[in-house]
Amino acid sequence: MIALVALHAGYSHSSLALQSIAAYAKSETYYDRLRLFEVLVNSNHQPLLEALVDLQPRIVGFSTYLWNIAAAIHLSRLLKQLMPDIVVVFGGPEAGPRGKSLLAQSSSVDFIIQGEGEAAFNDLVKYVLYDEGELQRISGLIYRDKGGITSNAVELIPVDKLPAPIAEGMVDTSRPLVYWETSRGCPYKCTFCSSATERLRLFPLERIEADLQQLERLENKTIKLLDRSFHLGQQRSCQLLKRFAGTGSGLRFHLELNPDRISPQAMEIFQQAEAGKFQFEIGLQTLDEDVLNTIERHMDIAKALENIRQLVEMRRHPVHLDLIVGLPGETADQCATSLDRTFSLYPDHLQLGTLKLLPGTPLRDQAQHLGYRWDPDPPYEVLSHPQLSFSEIARFKRHAELLERLWNSGYLRAVLAGLVAGCFRGSVSHCFDQLLRVCGVGLARDNLQPDRLFDHMTAFIQPYLDQHPELEELLLWDYCQFSLVTGKTPVWIASRLRERVRLIIDDKPRRLPVLTLTESGVELIQRHHKQTLTAGRYAVWPKQYKKGKPVEIVALDA
Asked: What is the pTM of this model?
């Protein structure tokens, strides 16, 4: 028996890697003895251990990433104690680049495969089970040999030989996310990325169409493309985008985009597509030209920002933007400027991450020369570099938490946008600094319930209300999106939502609080709200009662 194991970070995840390995082996004599196991990395692994021991496999392969490598090593040690003759194989982007050191440190791991695993794992299985082939001819194999450790060169699989597990019906589609790829590798050479040295290969359009015909049978799924960059030539990209847009309403496509490469033709497809058909993930990383050059990331910043602005103002498809703190040569002021400029786009989600010096990346090889200090254990986060101190990185980590709690959560978007624009000259970083000074670092670090967040914001806006009275209606708008007035509602908010109106919502009578929006308040809300609003009185049936459905907004003066 052969077992393949994936330890996922979340319930919605599945392993296209394991399914591709299985698809590649479909014609092999051992295929019927191949079993896949997918569990959560933070779950109780006793059931998995029992299942593997019951199976008594000859070979166990682990798909490793920075979030599961420690758990995979621990499980391999237990398996070796219980089944000493078992052959343990590690693959994936975590084990491969650090293969030699990992073999030197972990006696429970027998082989590591660097690079693509489909052909390599198949060749290794045939070597172990049938004594076929030679270890030194297996692509990317790292193994102990004559008292030392040998590493074979990686050979990429020809495009026409890559397995198509989706077209063959071999992919787990039971979870909310279905992973898919239309290409491998990347045309860009960003030094911090694990794909910096992986040559781009495009899958034939015929294969993609065969996959799509299987995917179109699914309902209510997000198809997450693993392609490092989707825009790979205007003609091909637009052809695929039109095909995606033409699928049924039950499918959504999550794409990673290079924003300066979005063509007017692609933008038109996005505008005409069904709302929510696409989800965009855009890695800006920084908006500093010199830093972009240092990491060999080529981007027309002005064009990128204009295209993102168009996508956001379209209000049809969610836009997720990424920034990285800790890139080489970038100072705290440069990081703050990138954050401020990116926030002013009002994306649906803005993630501020700390640089990870991933094994096998060019930047990791340059790290000591560049003066980096970093955590040697996964996830390898940067601690400091000569232009950015540990305390400055810690400051941005707190900013990242505030983004998650106040903006990405959706709880306090309107009032945060109003504060930044009206009171902090467009600088969200200065706003966050003041929030932390007034409310304390617990606002970022403590496990606060939403009503407590509103309580903090209620106190924070008081000194600004005389000159910016619209902040009151923005805060009330945010609260009405979240909840009805309850015993947990901050007193200041409850006192301003005393007026009630009786409406029929979901075929039942409801008493909803009434709030009044002025023209200045509506202008700020409209920057990140999909529904067209005008100044007037409104009642809101909030999201905590909608169970994933859009908040219901009733114009009382219409």
From this structure: 0.92
